[in-house]
Design goal:
CATH superfamily: CDP-alcohol phosphotransferase transmembrane (TM) domain
Number of domains: 1
CATH topology: Four Helix Bundle (Hemerythrin (Met), subunit A)
CATH class: Mainly Alpha
Distance between the termini: 49 Å
Helix content: over 70%
Radius of gyration: 20 Å
Order of helices and strands: HHHHHH
Structural class: mainly alpha
Number of helices: 6
Strand content: under 5%
Largest sheet: none
Number of strands: 0
CATH architecture: Up-down Bundle
Shape: globular
Length: about 200
């Protein structure tokens, strides 16, 4: 069922191709516009989640769509930033973040099939990661000078560290669930063999 939080999420998804278009417009105000667009997308991410909880409009479709919208915007923006700066010390965190997003999405899909998705709810570290990541991306889109660039890239690396650490958390949780399920499966097989 389509509700207001889902509509906001769909708007965020539709911003990705528009964002790419504005990124390559050869005008002086393009960096500011892209930064504002990304900040707006980040704000809608906060709003749709709050509305879904306050208005009790949480749905399975909305819970599936929200992280998809986040990943689309972040991965698209990181690829564009990496293409613009074209330097290894921005490529490294970009690759780590994208790999992390793929792994975590795959884990959530597997946990959903096992009907244990609630075990991979967003952690506090992951929330901090998102905040630092979005701030660093907003500033990088402005194409800052050397001093601001150093601070912003440091922030990007810190958010990358948090991304990697939160991924390890999710992997550990998934491993414990997998190990428990495998133990139960193994026990059932042994009991069947006895008969």
């Amino acid at each position: 069922m389509i509700n207001i939080p889902i509509i906001i999420t769909l708007i965020r998804i539709s911003l990705s191709p528009i964002f790419v278009l504005f990124f390559y417009i050869p005008v002086s105000w393009s960096p500011i516009l892209c930064s504002v667009l990304f900040a707006f997308a980040s704000f809608t991410d906060l709003i749709d989640g709050l509305l879904a909880r306050i208005c009790k409009k949480r749905t399975n479709f909305g819970e599936f769509l929200d992280p998809v919208a986040d990943k689309l915007m972040i991965v698209t923006t990181l690829i564009l930033i990496n293409e613009y700066y074209h330097i290894w010390w921005i490529t490294i965190p970009t690759v780590i973040i994208i790999i992390r997003e793929i792994i975590v999405c795959s884990l959530r899909e597997w946990m959903a099939k096992e009907r244990k998705r609630e075990h991979l709810s967003v952690s506090t570290i992951s929330k901090f990661k998102t905040v630092f990541q979005m701030i660093s991306i907003i500033v990088l889109l402005l194409r800052p000078d050397n001093t601001k660039m150093l601070l912003t890239v440091s922030l990007l690396y810190f958010s990358t560290f948090l991304s990697f650490f939160s991924m390890l958390q999710y992997l550990y949780i998934s491993y414990k669930i997998f190990k428990k399920n495998f133990s139960v499966f193994d026990k059932n097989i042994r009991e069947q063999d006895k008969h």
